[in-house]
Amino acid sequence: MIAELTRQLRRRRTAFGLLGIGAVPVILAVALYLTDGDGGGDGGGGGDPTGLFDLAEASGLNFTLTTLAAVSPFLLLSVVALFTGDPVSSEASWGSLRYLLTRPVGRSRLLGRKLTIGLLLSVLAGVVVVLVAAVAGTVAFGWGGVVTPFGSLPAGQAVLRIGAILLYVLWSSLWVAALAFALSVRTDEPVGAVAGTIVLVIVVQILDAITALGTVRELLPVHEGTAWLGLLADPPRWGDLVRGVWLQVPWTLGLLSWGWWSFQRRDVTS
Amino acid sequence: MRAPTGRLVAGLAAAALLVGAVALVARDDVVVEELTVDAPTGPDDPTTIALDVALYRPARLGTDDDPRPAVVLGHGFGSDRRAVDAWARRLAGDGRVVLTWSARGFGGSQGRVGLADPTRDAADVRALLDLLAERDEVRQDAPGDPRVALVGASYGGGLALLGASVDDRVDAVAAVATWADLASALAPDRADDGGPGVLAEQWASVLFAGAAGASLDLGAATGPDADAAAPGGGAAEPSGDAAADPDVGAQALLGRACGAFDPAVCLAYVASASAGTLLPEARTLLEARSVPPRAASITAPTLLVQGQQDTLFDLGQSLANARALQDAGTPVALRWVPGGHGEVGAGDPGDAVADAVDGWLDRWLPLRGDAPAGDEPDLLAWTDPVSGAPRSSDTLPGPGTTLLRATAGGRLVPGGADLPLPTQDDAAGGTRVVLRPPGALPASISTLPALGGIADLLPQLDLPGQSATWRSDPLDADLSLLGAPRLTLRVEAPAGVPGAGPPVTPDSGAPDAGPAAGTVPDVGALLFVKLRSTTPNGRSTLLQAAANPTRVDELPATVTLELAPLATRVQAGDRLELVVATTDLAHAVPRVPAAFSLDLSGDGAGLSLPVVPEQDVATVPPLLRVAVPVALALLLVAAAAWATRRHERRLADAPVAEGGEEVPVRIEGLVKRYADGKVAVAGLDLEVHRGQVVGLLGPNGAGKTTTMRILLGLITPTAGRVLLFGREVRPGHPVLARVGTLVEGPGFPPYLTGRQALRSHWELGGRPWQEADVEHALEVADLGPAIDRPVGAYSHGMRQRLAIAQALLARPELLVLDEPTDGLDPEQIRAMRQLLARLGEQGTTILVSSHLLAEVEQTCTHVAVVRSGRVVAAGPVGQVMGATRSVVVRVDDRERGRAVLAPLVGQDALDLESDGIAVVLGEREVADLVEALVAAGLRVHGVVPRGRLEDTFLALTGGEPAGGSAEWTPEERQ
Fold it and tell me: How many Cβ pairs within 8 Å bridge chains A and B?
């Protein structure tokens, strides 16, 4: 496992991915700090389903929440897709996959290791975003409690809730990891796996936005994506959140099973 | 063979699942029949109006089946029968006959909207029941008396109740989110002293606009009196007439604005909305449509469902209906479900409402039999909004008994009239003054119409000075409240402040023209009483979304207000808040500024709460609910890991075929056929004994690489067996630890250095770096300082050497090399050859594949010739190659040379080439040829070996180039 971790960490794209997502809060903080936040009122409206964007400057923790809300629908999912969709297909593209497979190590074990490391790096990306946002936000806007659309929370509780929100956001990205992984075992082209995953994520999100689809939308894995807002309420609302946690299980298991099954049977010609 | 059947099975399974899902989801087919029913226009009117009706029947209901009970389903205000189409289909799918109709004035029905006039709109039920009495599919209790239930939500619910009071043929009623007294619903007044109340402006306008708009859109208002006030008729009136007679003109104008409304109703609304209060005529009109006075006429068992956050018809309405029906001796059940008016009163209700109605129908209108089926239902059932748990009661809730007193300091403390107040709160006086701003804006926000279930997320806004708040201490334990709280307080108007006294009448206009438009008459005190629960963090929730409008008509007064019933729970740690405000955004409030003083601290004053004993509800803490799926996922992962380990152990423990150690590679009957039909390997047999260096010789596409990949577990064979050291090969088999490989070129991650790549590859095999043969490997790689540079910078030759080094890390007993000299320059090829020779001498078994004859000749001890997926010849190199050696002899006169050589080797072994004569030697030696040629006088310029695979094949297959015969050895040929 450590060997695999080292193998992945040495890659330049790992560093770029983490740096990239870590730069987002810094850029946001600088932008908000410099514009002083006045122009944010009008012209907004679209693209803020959480109601948190206007509250970004209230405190450092508020800024962290806003960053998390901004990053979780797409950017974080893209990074997750990158970290989980790349390992297997990039080995195939370099020609080293066949050598890994001729080791006395089963294919399942190999996949398991790559998936675990991919997930670990995704978690690391999430933690990096939150920590950088917390630091940048505190520097720019100061420490303090959190103001939410439902009221306010003291700083201590807010930290706990933000941690829980991060866990939920990462859990909700499991299906993306599973999809990216499943695609990466089927293709020799890492770009195909990562880009294909991102395209599918966008398609699913579009489907979720079409209200005419009715109750079918409730089965989509992104449907409860903003359910973590309930954790900001007081007392916290768990209904949608629990549902969101359950929703990931069948999708992730299904996609991973598909990936596993196809890799076990596959003739490796790369 | 595996891939196609696998895909076929998967496809069939998916198709089967899809078909099954569709079958499950598809309902029992329902047949819809659209009809028109004539109903009397009014009690003394001989004319009739046509009602648009739809009849839903289960498709499977044949003529031989028993007739089914029927359900008459009404729709909400402002829509038509199409709004309840989905609900009707569901009810019909359950097996009953369903009749929906557009209430008069709506949709395709004629007539005017009388707002559930019992003599008109509700009486239409009679005509509908008459229709059902004539249908064969409907069960009849007696000739002309169908077995029928009236069901409806909101307006439809009111029609159901009033219809049941008019026609006693009705056998059951289910009324959802409907009223008891329309007057108190649209102009509530908690003081209930008969005054005009506070007009629920927003709700009234929403309803009216919805209905007027809906009926304006359809040109179906073509009743007998349509031309007088209908939009079409009004527009056609000559303008001259309109100018001459202002009443007709006003009526025409009103007609256009009123749409299909009954003029009396329309006028009542317009006048009240303009006045900002419910005028006496309007009040009389609405009270005529009340249910409790008619409760004695309703004999059918009635179900009343109400939304807990309904702000139009609150829980008190359903409670009033239930009490009246209970007093009349009618079986009644009350269900309070979560949701506002929009959710609960919708045309297609949610699960809570649908289940309650279905349960009621199943009990009182069973499909088979006549007797009520099932257990006695609870009288009252409600849902605890916090835990979501269902609760029930056998009695209707009464008024509150737990008394809380308010102190001047703004606290709510428990206590009765006999208990003294805590002294530290005994501040000067006990009164609070609240102000109403001019124009009644800014206004407090408590709730807005149609927000329903999310109403409690709306931030509560009470403006300073406009409201007075009393707060309790944080509660020690959860408090369950069921019933109507009561507030007793004293209201006064401080002297010199406008607001006390007789109503202000406008100067202009006739005295009986009514109040001027745009002003709410300023009578007495208009207050809004709100109960809230507040969390420790300051988040407030309005209990039951009730703003409790109150009008105290004469000041000063001590009034007891009965607030809207509650069915809720306040959690431990929260505080209870009582707020009295002068404005509310959803209600019509006088614009004139005023001030009132409120005193809750006097004798007899206080708030009494209807507390019910705590039911021990075992709620699952939310963290646990979240932990379950996570634990499930982890469990499955652990199970997968265990299964993997078990599989690996089974592989390691598999039986070893005998002789495995002497024969590291044994291939029996190997076949590989791809999905597109291409056959790469067609029955290949091969044995490699320990210590041999076997060359796998064949042209490109012969199946050498495929065979090697199968040998290593990269590709699964279609048929046949492959044994490595006596063990059947599977992907990742432990026996591969004894094998080093180089297949189709090197493969390294370009960003790792040579050393890192070797180490990473080794450690991924699960063994520590110390066990690897690093020294030897690095020596073989011979890369010098380049070993610490990224592999991406290497040349092909360097990578090839690194790949060999990687193969040697494991001190392998078997080396499987596929074209190891591919892409190397002659110097490197020589080095490779020397390495292989050295390894062979050390005892390593080597399997090398190549398409170059010379290479095989020079490096291998044994050779297996492969063609078209089969081994054509196998054996020691000398033997096999010996039979196939050929040379090119360079002479001046080739023709003569050929003639000379023909007797020696045979005519077939000679071929004229551009640079000489090609000769397949057979058993002859080169020396023999040269001797013969020289003896014949020819000058021999040179003899060059010619290594052509085709010659080999020709020789081996006896001149047949295509197809391969079964494996045979040169000895056999001889």
Answer: 157
Per-state percent for chain B, helix, strand, coil, to nearest 5: 35, 25, 40
What are the distances in angstroms from CA B646 to CA A103, B368, B736?
18, 58, 18
Quick: pLDDT tens for B948-968. 666 666 666 554 443 333 333
CA of B742 to nearest chain A CA: how many angstroms apart?
8
Task: Check B739 against A102: CB less than 8 A apart.
Answer: yes
User: What is the pLDDT averaged over residues B38-51?
Assistant: 89
- pLDDT tens for B671-729 read 998 888 888 888 888 888 888 899 888 877 788 888 999 999 888 899 998 998 888 88
Residue B764 to residue A105, Cβ atoms within 8 A: yes
Residue at A270 is within a domain: no
Are B618 and A233 contacting, i.e. CB atoms less than 8 angstroms apart? no
Task: Judge contact between B137 and B30, C-beta under 8 A.
Answer: no
Minimum-distance CB partner of B745 among A3, A95, A113:
A95
Angle between helices A174-186 and A190-209 (to 10 degrees): 140
Find the closest chain A residue to B638 by CA distance. A112
Q: Do B622 and A98 touch (CB under 8 A)?
A: no
Amino acid in the structure at residue B461: L
CA dist A241 and A244 (Å) reads 5
Alpha carbons within 13 angstroms on the beta-carbon side of residue B618 total 1
Q: Testing the interface with B: which of A50, A88, A96, A119 to mutate, by most B Cβ within 10 A?
A: A96
For A241, how many CA atoms within 13 A lie in the half-sphere containing its CB? 25
Q: Cα dihedral sign for B610, B611, B616, B617?
A: positive
Identify residue B471 by its one-letter amino acid code: R
Is residue A153 in some structural domain? yes
Total structural domains within chain A: 1
Q: Are B380 and B336 in contact (CB under 8 A)?
A: yes
Range of the domain at A213: 2-264
The distance of B711 to chain A (nearest Cα, Å) reads: 10
What would the two tokens of residue A41 be? 């009122």
Identify the closest residue of chain B to A153 by CA–CA distance.
Answer: B537
Contact A108 B644 (CB under 8 A): yes
Whether the pLDDT of residue A191 is over 80: the answer is yes
Dihedral, B918, B921, B924, B930 alpha carbons, nearest 10 = 20
Tokens of B172: 């059951």
* In chain B, % of residues over pLDDT 90: 15
Chain B: residue whose CA lies nearest to A151: B539
Which of A7, A105, A269 is closest, CB to CB, to B766? A105
pLDDT band at B64 (very low <50, low <70, confident <90, very high): low
Which residue of chain A has the CA closest to B644?
Answer: A108
Q: What is the distance between the alpha carbons of residues B914 and B891, in angstroms, rounded to a whole number?
A: 11
Exposed, middle or buried: residue B968 (CB in 10 Å: 0-12, 13-18, 19+)? middle
pLDDT value at residue B460: 67
CB contact under 8 A, A109 and B648: yes
In a domain, A131, yes or no: yes
**Helix axes of B280-287 and B263-275: crossing angle, nearest 10 degrees:** 130
Q: Are B471 and B558 in contact (CB under 8 A)?
A: no
What whole-number distance in Å separates Cα of residue A44 and Cα of residue B458?
Answer: 21
- Assess if residue A269 is contained within a domain: no
The ipTM estimated for the assembled molecules is 0.85
pLDDT in tens, B798-838: 888 899 899 998 889 999 998 888 777 888 888 888 888 88
Q: How far apart are the first and last CA of chain A?
A: 24
Burial class of residue B820 (count of CB atoms within 10 Å of its CB; 0-12, 13-18, 19+): buried
Q: Got the DSSP string for B366-409?
A: -SS-SS--SSPPPSEEEE-TTT--EEEESS---B--EEEEE-TT
**Model confidence at B212, in pLDDT bands (50, 70, 90)?**
low
